[in-house]
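TetR family transcriptional regulator, Serpentinicella alkaliphila. Tokens?
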Amino acid sequence: MNKRTEITAQTKQNLMDAFWDLYCEKRIEKITVKEIANKAGYNRGTFYEYFTDVYNVLDEIENSLIPSLDELPPFSTPTGTIGMPLDVFFNVWEQNAKYYSVLLGDKGDPAFARKLKNSIKPTIMKVLEDKPDIDLREIDYILEYTLTAMIGIMSYWFIKEMTLSRDRLFILIHRLMEDGVTSHLPL
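Tokens:
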């Protein structure tokens, strides 16, 4: 029975890997179930045992890449605990670089950035909701801005083939978050 579970998991992974190879080459609308099955060495019927269509494969891959913030250490500040530390964000990003660089790139899935933000934002909001004198509507906009910037700069870092060292980028992001953007522009 355990052997069967391993075979099933491997078959599913093979199909996902075949899809990913194709997705890196062309847009999802151009990928067929037949192509995925052939590339993985299976028939179409085997594909349908695991997935409903090509979009279902993409969803499974994306969902596996969304960090579970409940499992990550929180970021502590003098006034409380908020979200995920920047170094953990970097580690998650680097572990998934093969996927993130494509999904968040020009040919990727525009909805993936939204999924990332939607996985992080509620956790941070929950920490802040009990604080006095906080306008959660305003915090929502601040988090949207910050998370969009974080995802954007990390994507850009991969597009530019990490021309800045990880440490320099880490310091830059930290300075931008602490001091704001305009204080670093030569105006």
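Strands lie at 75-77, 80-82.
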